[in-house]
Amino acid sequence: MTEAPDPRRSAAPPAPTARQEVSSNRLFRATLLWSAGATAVLAVVGAVVGYAVAGTSGLWSALVAILLAAVFLGLTAGSILIANRWYGDPLWVPIFFGAVMGSWVVKFGLFIVALLVLRGQEWLNGPVFFVALVVSVLASLVIDVVVMLKLRVPHVGDVSLPTLADVEAAESRPDAGDGEPGADTGAPRA
Length: 190
Prior knowledge:
With 190 residues, this protein is mostly helical. 63% of the residues lie in helices and 0% in strands.
């Protein structure tokens, strides 16, 4: 004897839900792309100016400073983009903060290691290194401001707001109220 299939139960597994895109991802991608372009331009200009000011040591000092700035500044945006892949997951918030805080710890460790390795190097020209680092950081800040002003991210872009049909459907359900006498039904009070 065979049983009739239950129409409420489907034989096929439910379709996987599409991964939601966080609205700020466009902003961080644009920041990384603009920063990569600015780093390339700064590397060429820094190498030429560094070589003109201090020879080969100036060239390498400028390139190392610009590369360090690019790595440090790209880690935060990159970690946010990676963490946003889990958006919609119940563990997204801990994953997000763990990734961002982890990238800051990595940046701090890299900064200490870079200082220890570069300290006392005879090929390093301190003034060229410092100026190239400051110019790189300032360029990154300008890029961040320009990207923030140019790209529009909605205030409620990652939230599904109810439509008029949703509100009307909720009001028409018999279980919409809590059933207690004197419960607020949304009518104005006299």
